[in-house]
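Methods — Computational structure assignment.
A single polypeptide chain was analysed. Its primary sequence is given first, followed by the predicted tertiary structure written as structure tokens.
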Amino acid sequence: MKQFCFTVRDPNGIHARPAGALSAFVKGLGCEVRIRNGEKEADAKRLLSVMALGARCGTMLTVTVSGDEEEKASHALQEFCEQQLGQTEAPED
């Protein structure tokens, strides 16, 4: 299991378009990806689940990647998040 955090930098937060892009990207990874915002947790492959997190600009999300190719998938997802959604950070221990 790999984990990282990222802060949403899109001024509109994670609304339909970025949530859709994230879900589509995750579906191609072949790993299970969960996103946590406080007490809320979402399956990143499910668009509505991601939108239900209510992630606004400045929200720090924790992403957990698990599966056969988790190292590679985690790295690819971190790059996607940096480019499309915000800024990645070291996970909180």
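Note: The longest strand covers residues 2-8.
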